[in-house]
């Protein structure tokens, strides 16, 4: 192999991370203003040797892939993981089988502080052997224990703490994973079971794996120190929309059809909730409004589903390097009652935006019988969106 060998990366982000405590899986939790996963992907997408990335997500998280894979600096695809880590890695490798890169790096999403130098070290070792992985020699004394008491000691000579990325010649590790019965501790174990010689390269103490709640604080201190504690680019946008009632038997609100004795009048499907959210995203980007991107004078949008507009705004945010932090929309009407449908609406908005439902708030209020909404002449919506630089 030479310095021009093609390199792909499999980032494994399909775990649930129960040891990290209650809340979202750790790869989705914030770290220095952005998701842990975003920092991990940046480390590889910004490396000059990495040609493409396969992101392996839990099947329940696939709707969030679009917010991370739409990048201009590196080709990135997403696949669903399997029932355990080994199956998830195999799914990621199979997604690369047609391309068959020379080298593949397999990395845990929960290690967001991997450095360019560490990546370089693994790749350099792959020029000379079929497999390489970073590790730190164990320097502390090792004990055995039971019931809170020391029961013995162990020799630490020759012991190492494994890290990722673990690198391999692609064809060799794909064949090894296909043949392995499962249950391996990591990909080095799979490689060794197939008879591959694995080179140890120096690990990095800062390349910590976020496991428990305290690791987030340590990782944030390290990350902010590395970044010079920059001010994160956070943008807020507001959206407002109104549609009048007309004859009909249902209204569409935040992508959900709600039975009602009236319908909403509009050039498209008149989804006042999605329109307000769409304008909020455009507003955060200082990118005009929905009427400029989808003028009502254009017959193409007559009766169109408002999903189209929201996805367009989402993609423009992604293309400019922003992730959607959260959205909050309030529907103002006397009827229909929104509360029973709010969870379904939040789930639909989250699906369209590629974010977790816990980042979407859908609520409703009346105007106390005042104004056009109080007279039940129509529905209004007010929305706020937060964009965070990735």
Task: Characterize this entry briefly.
Helices cover 29% and strands 29% of the residues. With 390 residues, it is α/β, with parallel strands linked by helices.
Number of helices: 12
Name of the level-1 CATH class of the largest domain: Alpha Beta
Structural class: alpha/beta
Q: Mind telling me which CATH architecture of the largest domain this is?
A: Alpha-Beta Complex
Task: Give the N-to-C terminal Cα separation.
Answer: 34 Å
CATH topology of the largest domain: Spore Coat Polysaccharide Biosynthesis Protein SpsA, Chain A
CA radius of gyration is: 25 Å
Give the % helix: 25-40%
Shape: elongated
Largest sheet: 8 strands, mixed
Question: Overall pLDDT, averaged?
Answer: 92
Kindly state the number of beta strands. 19
CATH superfamily of the largest domain, please?
Spore Coat Polysaccharide Biosynthesis Protein SpsA, Chain A
| Count of all domains | 2
| Low-pLDDT segments, ≥5 res | none
Share in β-strands: 25-35%
Keywords: Isoprene biosynthesis, Lyase, Metal-binding, Multifunctional enzyme, Nucleotidyltransferase, Transferase
Site (Transition state stabilizer): 19, 26, 267, 366
Pfam families: IspD, YgbB
Domain 2-C-methyl-D-erythritol 2,4-cyclodiphosphate synthase: 234-387
Care to describe what's here?
The protein has 390 residues and is α/β, with parallel strands linked by helices. The chain has 2 domains: 7-227, Spore Coat Polysaccharide Biosynthesis Protein SpsA, Chain A (Alpha-Beta Complex), CATH 3.90.550.10; 234-389, 60s Ribosomal Protein L30, Chain: A (2-Layer Sandwich). 29% of the residues lie in helices and 29% in strands. It contains 12 helices and 19 strands. The protein has helices at 36-45, 66-69, 85-95, 116-126, 170-179, 187-193, 213-227, 272-285, 290-293, 307-319, 342-353, 371-374; strands spanning 7-13, 30-31, 34-35, 52-57, 75-80, 103-108, 131-137, 142-146, 149-154, 160-162, 166-169, 198-202, 234-247, 250-253, 256-259, 262-264, 322-332, 360-365, 378-389. Strands 1, 4, 5, 6, 7, 10, 11 and 12 form an 8-stranded mixed sheet that branches. A 5-stranded mixed sheet has the order 16-13-19-17-18. Helix 5 crosses helix 6. The longest helix has 15 residues, at 213-227. The chain is elongated and about 80 Å long. The two termini are 34 Å apart. The model has no long low-confidence stretch (mean pLDDT 92).
């Amino acid at each position: 192999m030479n310095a021009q060998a093609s390199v792909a990366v499999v980032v494994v982000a399909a775990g649930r991370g129960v040891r990290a405590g209650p809340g979202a899986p750790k790869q989705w939790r914030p770290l220095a203003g952005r998701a842990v996963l975003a920092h991990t992907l940046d480390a590889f997408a910004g490396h000059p040797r990495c040609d493409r990335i396969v992101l392996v997500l839990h099947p329940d998280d696939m709707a969030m892939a679009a917010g991370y894979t739409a990048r201009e600096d590196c080709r990135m695809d997403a696949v669903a993981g399997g029932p355990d880590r080994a199956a998830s890695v195999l799914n990621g490798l199979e997604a690369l089988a047609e391309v068959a890169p020379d080298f593949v790096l397999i990395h845990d999403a929960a290690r967001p502080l991997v450095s360019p130098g560490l990546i370089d070290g693994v790749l350099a070792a792959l020029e000379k052997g079929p497999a390489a992985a970073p590790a730190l020699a164990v320097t502390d004394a090792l004990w055995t224990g039971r019931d809170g008491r020391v029961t013995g000691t162990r020799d630490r000579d020759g012991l190492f703490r494994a890290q990722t990325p673990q690198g391999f010649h692609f064809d060799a590790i794909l064949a090894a994973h296909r043949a392995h019965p499962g249950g391996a501790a990591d990909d080095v174990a799979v490689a060794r079971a197939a008879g591959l010689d694995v080179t140890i390269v120096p690990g990095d103490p800062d390349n910590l794996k976020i496991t428990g709640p305290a690791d987030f604080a340590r990782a944030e201190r390290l990350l902010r120190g590395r970044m010079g504690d920059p001010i994160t680019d956070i943008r807020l946008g507001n959206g407002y929309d109104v549609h009048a009632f007309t004859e009909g038997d249902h209204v569409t609100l935040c992508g959900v059809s709600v039975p009602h004795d009236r319908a909403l009048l509009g050039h498209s499907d008149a989804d006042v909730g999605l329109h307000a959210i769409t304008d909020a995203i455009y507003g955060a980007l200082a990118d005009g409004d929905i009427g400029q991107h989808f003028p009502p004078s254009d017959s193409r949008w007559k009766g169109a589903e408002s999903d189209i507009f929201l996805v367009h705004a989402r993609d423009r945010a992604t293309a400019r390097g922003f992730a959607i932090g959260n959205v909050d929309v309030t529907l103002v009407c006397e009827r229909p009652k929104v509360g029973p449908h709010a969870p379904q609406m939040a789930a639909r908005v989250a699906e369209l935006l590629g974010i977790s439902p816990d980042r979407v708030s859908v609520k409703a209020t009346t105007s106390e019988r005042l104004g056009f909404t109080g007279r039940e002449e129509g529905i209004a919506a007010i929305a706020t969106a937060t964009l965070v630089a990735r």
